[in-house]
From TrEMBL:
The keyword Membrane applies. Keywords: Carboxypeptidase, Cell membrane, Cell shape, Cell wall biogenesis/degradation, Glycosyltransferase, Hydrolase, Membrane, Multifunctional enzyme, Peptidoglycan synthesis, Protease, Transferase, Transmembrane, Transmembrane helix. This is Penicillin-binding protein. Residues 80-254 form the Glycosyl transferase family domain. GO terms for biological process: cell wall organization; peptidoglycan biosynthetic process; proteolysis; regulation of cell shape. The lineage of its organism: Bacteria, Bacillati, Bacillota, Bacilli, Bacillales.
Amino acid sequence: MEGASLKESFRKDAQELNIKEYIKRLPSWTKHLKWPGIIVGALMLLTIIGYATIVFGGRFVVEQKDLVLDEMTTVETKDGEVVERIYTKNRKIVPIDQIPEHVRNAFIAIEDSRFYDHSGVDLKSIARAVYKDIIAMEKVEGGSTITQQLAKNLFLSNDKTWMRKTKEVMAAKYLERKYTKEEILELYLNRIYFGEGAYGIEAASQHYFNVSVSDLTVPQAALLAGLPKAPNSYSPFDHPEESKQRRNVVLARMAATGVLDTDEMISFQGSTLGTERKDESEETWSNSYVDLVIDEAAEKYHISREELKRGGYRIVVEMDPAIQRIAADQMKNGEFVPASQGQAEGAFTLMDHKSGALVAAVGGRDFKHGDVNRVKTKHQPASVIKPLAVYGPALMNDNYDPFTLLSDSRQSFAGNFNPSNYNDEYEGEVSLYEALVESKNVSAVWLLDKIGINYSKEYLSKLGLPTEDKGLAIALGGLSKGYSPLQLTEAYRSFAQQGKRVEGYTIRQIENRDGEIIHEHKLEEKEVFNKQTAWYMTEMLQTTVEEGTASAGNYPKALAGKTGTSQLASGKGNSNVWFAGYTPEYVGVVWMGYDRAEEEQWLEGGSSYPTRMMKDILSKVDQQKNLTASFSKPEGVESLPEPIDLPVVNDLEGKLTLSGLALLRGTLEWTPSSDQRVVYRIYREEEGEDVNVGEVTGKGSYKVSAFGIFDQTTYYVVPYDPLTGAEGKPSNSVTLRWDL
């Protein structure tokens, strides 16, 4: 190894001696060019390196992620009506083939007339700019092409330095190599700022002219092309004269570059600005609904609010704008429950119960983005819970039907629970039907005690209403956490749709910025009640609206529903009032109350207020939609008979006729009820225990068996309900005897 190293060392020394010998033999005049040649060579090398850096170094300036422009997300109805826009920057990207040629020509004429001739940098423009900078001894003019402007806006700051300018050129060269002229122009027109919050040509067209870019006229295009230089100074709204002058400069440049005839230019310069300011009033009617959309996008589809602001999505929602406007107006201006301190708050939901689509949602009386959305806040549900926690589950048990008699007497239950009816009146026994229609508290608690709390909670869980509470107060909605209007809407849907529950939703589908559907709602139903139970509940809740606790207000079409009122422990007033119900098309809830129930503030009215509001909203919707007049009975279920109202008989009379030797026959007569289903039981008074001697149905007379002339008998009539098995009050008594 050492021999090889010595050999290599000798070889290098020999080469060095040869070079020196060669230099000695050069002519003497060449020795004077040694250092200038080195300097020239170095300069040439630096020039080559600099040029290569400018040409090929753009990849280190350009960030690919910056080429993806922030774009607004639109929230639209299925009919294409834009409800709201969600954005950080008000920008709607449009492809270049949707931007008319005269619009493109306007920008090229004023910003970069040689756009299609250069490769990113226009040397003539740069030379002119450099000359003016030298004369002024400062940076006064730019010679930037459209590509350079795009590079600056996307990747660089606005500092007027030579280093920034160098990077700008590097990036421009890179863009020209990687993209076509049309792609660069598309990025430019969608990127630039036009003032007043409008980014990109489409947003600017909508903002200043209330039209899409595809509908811009030549003068309108020229006006927009003149804005980016100084958007505030040339605003057609704030500075119309300056805007017109700038527009006319653009039109002149278009004529100079040959894209307009002189006659056309003169004609267009004489036209008005043609601007149309949109109504910028702060309408909030859709805010509650869109907040639900944003939440659903995050929770169900994992698209954050920040991503929506920049991602350019198209969210198609199930809102019915007509209903949403009606509901928002009623919540803001309609009659509200009076309250002890200031105004009470409220919430409203309305769902198409066939699909589960929320067609309207209002989260407060004057809801604005950022407010608490009360559609999703939880409160004590009060008696609204009774059909869900007690009566529905009971009807799923073979031991109960709508006419099963329930206890309605003051009593104590386990745990020293002593419920009372709201009017403190008791009937001893009532049917399940009557207990529901009249919202009997004791009967609901008594029935929950019979069917079992755990049994009830199983159904509540299936309805999307889980609770950790374990007491009989569940029957009256006395819960530790409560439920939201949206939860109760979903639960009541089960009665409207043959016992099946769905989760409510707002988003029909989501498209990305390329128009591809990336998410789409799918209907998923879960059966909770059978069809018969659901239909029985519908019929009973209809009666509740027509004759029971939900009779306040007026609505001429089919409506089934239930009210609820939560009282403060102090008894001063109420904390929450509710109405939950459904029509053949929709299911919805109205809640009114305070965000936080406190003893220092209370409601001075009851559930009649949300009931009336729901009926007012439905009445206005009916005027536009012509809602269905009656519910349709599903196939395979039985209709519920009308309850029997037992009459009070107080005009019983009797008469005798001779029917044979020493025998008499009697006839009892009274005024019968118009309901011919009433059974009348005839009793004969006897010592010890009275005897039932017979009965008639729907009639007002009964013939008594023959008895002796010297006998006397006393009779009375008791109305009987064959549906519930309950007897009414005995009539007056009549004694039959033969008076000689």
